[in-house]
Amino acid sequence: MHQRQLSISLYLNYFVHGIGLIILTQNMQALGQHWQTPLATVSYVISGIGIGRLFAYFILGNLSDRFGRKVFVNIGMASYLIFFLGMAVVTNIQVAYGLAILAGVANSALDSGTYTTFIEMGGRQGSANVLLKAFMSAGEFLLPLLVANLEAQQLWYGWSFMLAAVILLVNGVLLNRQHFPVRNQANASASALAVRQQISHGRRWLATIGLAGYGYTSMAIMILYTQWISLFATRTFHFSAILAHWLLSLYSIGSISGVLVIFWLLRRGVAETKLLVAMNVGSLVALLVICYSPIAGLSMIAALAFGFTAAGGVMQVALNLFIKLYPQVKGRVTGIYFTFGSIASFTIPLITGWLSQQNVALAMRFDLLIGVAGIGCVGLAAWAIRSPKSLSQERQRINHIDQQIVRLLNERFDTVTAIGELKQQQQLPVLDQQREQRVLHQVAAKSKQTAHTPYLQAIYQAIMRNSRAYQTDLHDLHKEEINHD
């Protein structure tokens, strides 16, 4: 119960974090008017978030291994609170840049304390960490709608900042009533898989380079899209402001859908490397459509697909894989991984700010190069981590299949119970030889391997024999109850 309440508070933080990720980009024009500066200057202020992350991630990641996770979650919440309240009213560009840096520190502190907490709570295959992305996407989905509504009604842009601050204040009270798990507690699945997969030292370094590089590209591809898609759509394809904001909301809907699908796939034991490669190829295809299709309907479908593939939790999947390479230093690995993401947060606004002075379309289409680099990074990591099948891996697969079989057999016995009751009402015998023969013929017809067929039939004969025994026991029990009455 305590873990559930703690999880809810941590997830709520990431709903606010999702708002924080795009609140400056969604208010670029309003902030530019308020500060009386061009959009390029606003973009440079946004780069301060990357500076904060760059300086904080590695330090806070290491410190969270030493001092515990709760301290750093609280530091993240307090830093974000100051950022939201201050940025709503600030007029000085230097102060605004400082607040942006503080937002980067807030991001770093939350990640250092939260991802490691979920792993230490025993989240299977890192699926709990993947769900963090769903709550981030929910914030990214709702904020553009709120901003568009404020613009349409000509209300103060600062209300979007105030909403996030209020949620943080309430959640701060709720979170500090909870107890965090013991830090650095071993995670069985991570330790077992940890790289006792006979990966050589050289290949592990290649995987580290690939995953660290993906920490950059996975963040960069999302930052660039969320920063420029609205302006790109209106200025390049002349879409309406509502449709341009809707492309970002569709991206968020796709992101949430992707998280749920990835969560389900991880639960089913799908390899992280396969997910990473497939999702990155899909995101590049969707991005090509977004960048070059002037058809509104096609752009909307592509935005949904891009959110699904690029922002559906693949960043978290790669982090989980990275932690499995070095399970004893979770905080440090988290810090390193997101340090590369923070470099993207700092450099991408600067690069695209310069590109936008030439052409907004050029800034947006720079994302295609990042997508290609991302495929290269995950391809390198997948190649380096690949390993021959092991006995433990195959047994784990068998265990998963057995879980499904037991669930289906429970359903079958429930149906057997209903059939037994109908047979009693109609005074029919328990054994129906013709029916059993038909079942065995169906098994033979559906068997994909001829060599397996006699063994499958023997298994089904045992199932039906035990089903008859179960029906007989139920019948005898029913007769005893009647006699007793």
TrEMBL record:
<feature type="transmembrane region" description="Helical">
    <location>
        <begin position="301"/>
        <end position="323"/>
    </location>
</feature>
<keyword id="KW-0813">Transport</keyword>
<feature type="transmembrane region" description="Helical">
    <location>
        <begin position="12"/>
        <end position="30"/>
    </location>
</feature>
<dbReference type="InterPro" id="IPR036979">
    <property type="entry name" value="CM_dom_sf"/>
</dbReference>
<dbReference type="Pfam" id="PF07690">
    <property type="entry name" value="MFS_1"/>
</dbReference>
<dbReference type="InterPro" id="IPR002701">
    <property type="entry name" value="CM_II_prokaryot"/>
</dbReference>
<dbReference type="InterPro" id="IPR020846">
    <property type="entry name" value="MFS_dom"/>
</dbReference>
<dbReference type="InterPro" id="IPR036263">
    <property type="entry name" value="Chorismate_II_sf"/>
</dbReference>
<dbReference type="Pfam" id="PF01817">
    <property type="entry name" value="CM_2"/>
</dbReference>
<feature type="transmembrane region" description="Helical">
    <location>
        <begin position="275"/>
        <end position="295"/>
    </location>
</feature>
<keyword id="KW-0472">Membrane</keyword>
<dbReference type="InterPro" id="IPR005829">
    <property type="entry name" value="Sugar_transporter_CS"/>
</dbReference>
<dbReference type="InterPro" id="IPR011701">
    <property type="entry name" value="MFS"/>
</dbReference>
<protein>
    <submittedName>
        <fullName>MFS transporter</fullName>
    </submittedName>
</protein>
<dbReference type="InterPro" id="IPR051788">
    <property type="entry name" value="MFS_Transporter"/>
</dbReference>
<feature type="domain" description="Chorismate mutase">
    <location>
        <begin position="385"/>
        <end position="475"/>
    </location>
</feature>
<feature type="transmembrane region" description="Helical">
    <location>
        <begin position="156"/>
        <end position="175"/>
    </location>
</feature>
<feature type="transmembrane region" description="Helical">
    <location>
        <begin position="42"/>
        <end position="60"/>
    </location>
</feature>
<keyword id="KW-0812">Transmembrane</keyword>
<feature type="transmembrane region" description="Helical">
    <location>
        <begin position="335"/>
        <end position="356"/>
    </location>
</feature>
<feature type="transmembrane region" description="Helical">
    <location>
        <begin position="368"/>
        <end position="385"/>
    </location>
</feature>
<feature type="transmembrane region" description="Helical">
    <location>
        <begin position="246"/>
        <end position="266"/>
    </location>
</feature>
<dbReference type="InterPro" id="IPR036259">
    <property type="entry name" value="MFS_trans_sf"/>
</dbReference>
<feature type="domain" description="Major facilitator superfamily (MFS) profile">
    <location>
        <begin position="6"/>
        <end position="391"/>
    </location>
</feature>
<comment type="similarity">
    <text>Belongs to the major facilitator superfamily.</text>
</comment>
<keyword id="KW-1133">Transmembrane helix</keyword>
<feature type="transmembrane region" description="Helical">
    <location>
        <begin position="205"/>
        <end position="226"/>
    </location>
</feature>
